[in-house]
Amino acid sequence: MIKAVIFDFDGTIVDTESLWYKVFKHILFEDYGFDLRLEDFAKGIGTSDDILFNYIDDKLGIKVNRKSIQEKTERAFQSQRDILILREGVQELIGKCIEKGLKLGVASSSGREWVKHYLKHFGIESLFQTVKTKEDVEKVKPDPALYIKALEEMGVEPEESLAIEDSVNGSIAAVQAGMHCVAVPNDVTHFLSFHEKVNRYKAFSEIPIDELIIWQSSR
Fold it and tell me: Which GO MF term does the entry hold, naming one (predicted)?
């Protein structure tokens, strides 16, 4: 029986990824004349920034100033962050999970301060029994450590849990952790191909949580 649902954060609960891509692409072009394609940006979604920067270094043939780019991107992002909202249907899905008595958690490759800020901002932090971020593990997604840590703290076995993701890296982490997984891609991940064990939905409202819990737990 499914006892817990663990949500990814960036791109899943809040679509920070679309805004981040917009400002990151602008700064990269402004500083280095490099036009970052969405499909290349998407390779680093849900995992460490090193993946993306290594790709950029390789394409440019030089090592870019990562600290400078990150600081500029952060400032630009923060200046526009007021436009961010919870993804449509997320709060309703969280409510349904609570009604079913399911434990809730967050597992994110981002930093704790970042994740906690937005959970507090949207008034949903108290709804999650555990929040695991990059500070809690040696390797982030697609390594399964974040999910494993969250499950251990919640006292739930992998086969008794469901992960909600938006990215390929995140869904691979969930599958490798032995969890069931569904994906609701956003504007920057909708074109990606997911693991065969991942059930994909266009919107959170499409997820039949009652049926899914029963069906998933019997797989």
Answer: metal ion binding
pTM value surpassing 0.85: yes
> In this structure, are 77 and 154 located in the same domain?
no
Last residue of a domain, one of 56, 83, 110: 83
Q: What is the DSSP string of 133-161?
A: -GGG-SS-TTSTHHHHHHHHHHT--GGGE
Residue 210 annotated to the active site? no
32: three-class secondary structure by DSSP:
helix
Instruction: Judge if 153 and 184 occupy the same domain.
Output: yes
Identify the pLDDT of residue 219. Answer: 45
113: domain CATH number? 3.40.50.1000
* Range(s) of the domain holding residue 76: 16-83
Q: Is 8 a catalytic residue?
A: yes
Instruction: Give pLDDT, residue 215.
Output: 54
Whether 79 and 107 share a structural domain? no
Query: Is 198 in the same domain as 140?
Result: yes
pLDDT of residue 218: 44
Catalytic residue among 8, 15, 143, 166: 8
Q: Among 10, 15, 143, 166, which one carries the catalytic annotation?
A: 10
